[in-house]
Backbone:
């Protein structure tokens, strides 16, 4: 008679160690993704940063903002967290019923991972890096159960216990989502009232050749058009710049953002009476020479803002092959012509944003900016 294989009776330390490591990894990643869900859906800080967002293709935000990220306000990452915990519970309650239930759930979990991965590639056209690690760990767990356990029959008693254990955190997170949604609704009403009370000045009379986000070739062809007047040596401008990548993930094809130079430096800005930011004009000249990689140089300049000096900027220009371009009269005139566009909106400080024709000075919290954009997208185009 063939002996029934069981993980409970398997003496291999390596197999059990691998299973525990996978379970802990699934638990930890799911805990992070649960927190990430609330950070993205209900942001509270100026700029959302995440170790999970590498670039436009490898980022968690697209997945988090999709309909598949939650069930009735409960992030699906919670169920990954719970499954990791259930595997570990199998070592406290070593019996056929628990092992058979965990074995069955490992197959269901692996199938769910395959569906979500396919959805990400085909529909979202992006990959969540941390989700992908969870998928790999899930497949390893499913293989361990398949290879080393013949206990496949789920126990209704164990499933009922698991359901009760899952109900409490799921209900709690659903309430948190509901409360945060109510809180945002009140803030949204006040914010939109303020926005609608401001004069609509229209878009700049000329388009900037420097795009940060391009959802359509013609600037006015997207529901949301943002023009930013900014200074590379301005800390608040850096905070605004850091908001761009979350917006790109959230509003694919719906958003055009163009950049206008507005250095607070009298060497190129005639409205200034002092060199408040003495390297801002040089940084603008450098960036203006790289229209094809403007977003990349935009991010690099802001990231190294505290390192600005003539030598540092010249080294960066040399690295990008635009040292000569930086010092030409043509480049200086181009930057000055874009600065002059700010006169249409009486720009006095940076950053200044023109959101669908309405002037907004300073940096809005990410949550408030997203509220405005969400509302404007739904409004009929005039």
Residues:
């Amino acid at each position: 008679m063939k002996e029934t294989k069981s993980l409970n009776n398997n003496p291999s330390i390596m197999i059990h160690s691998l299973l525990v490591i996978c379970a802990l990894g699934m638990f930890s990643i799911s805990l992070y993704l649960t927190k990430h869900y609330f950070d993205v859906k209900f942001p509270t800080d100026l700029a959302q940063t995440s170790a999970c967002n590498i670039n436009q293709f490898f980022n968690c935000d697209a997945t988090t903002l999709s309909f598949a990220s939650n069930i009735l306000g409960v992030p699906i990452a919670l169920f990954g967290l719970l499954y990791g915990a259930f595997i570990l519970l199998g070592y406290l309650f070593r019996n056929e019923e628990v092992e058979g239930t965990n074995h069955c759930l490992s197959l269901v979990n692996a199938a769910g991972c395959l569906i979500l991965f396919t959805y990400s590639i085909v529909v979202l056209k992006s990959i969540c890096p941390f989700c992908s690690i969870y998928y790999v760990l899930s497949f390893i767990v499913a293989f361990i159960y398949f290879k080393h356990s013949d206990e496949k029959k789920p126990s209704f008693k164990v499933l009922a216990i698991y359901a009760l254990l899952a109900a409490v955190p799921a209900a709690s997170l659903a309430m948190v989502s509901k409360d945060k949604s109510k809180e945002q609704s009140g803030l949204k009403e006040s914010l939109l009232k303020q926005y609608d009370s401001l004069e609509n000045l229209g878009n700049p009379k000329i388009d900037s050749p420097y795009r940060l986000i391009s959802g359509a070739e013609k600037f006015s062809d997207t529901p949301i058009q943002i023009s930013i007047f900014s200074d590379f040596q301005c800390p608040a401008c850096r905070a605004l710049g850091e908001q761009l990548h979350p917006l790109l993930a959230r509003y694919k094809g719906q958003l055009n953002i163009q950049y206008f130079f507005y250095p607070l430096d009298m060497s190129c800005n005639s409205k200034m009476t002092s060199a408040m930011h003495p390297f801002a004009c040089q940084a603008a000249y450098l960036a203006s020479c790289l229209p094809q990689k403007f977003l990349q140089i935009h991010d690099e300049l802001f990231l190294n803002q505290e390192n600005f000096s003539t030598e540092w900027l010249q080294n960066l220009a040399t690295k990008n092959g635009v040292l000569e371009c930086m010092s030409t009269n043509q480049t200086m005139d181009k930057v000055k012509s874009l600065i002059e566009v700010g006169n249409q909106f009486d720009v006095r400080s940076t950053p200044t944003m023109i959101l669908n024709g309405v002037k907004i000075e300073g940096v809005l919290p990410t949550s408030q900016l997203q509220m405005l954009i969400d509302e404007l997208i739904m409004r009929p185009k005039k």
About this structure: Residues 109 and 138 are 7 Å apart (CA to CA). The chain has a mean pLDDT of 89. The two ends are 78 Å apart (CA to CA). The first strand starts at residue 70 and ends at 71.
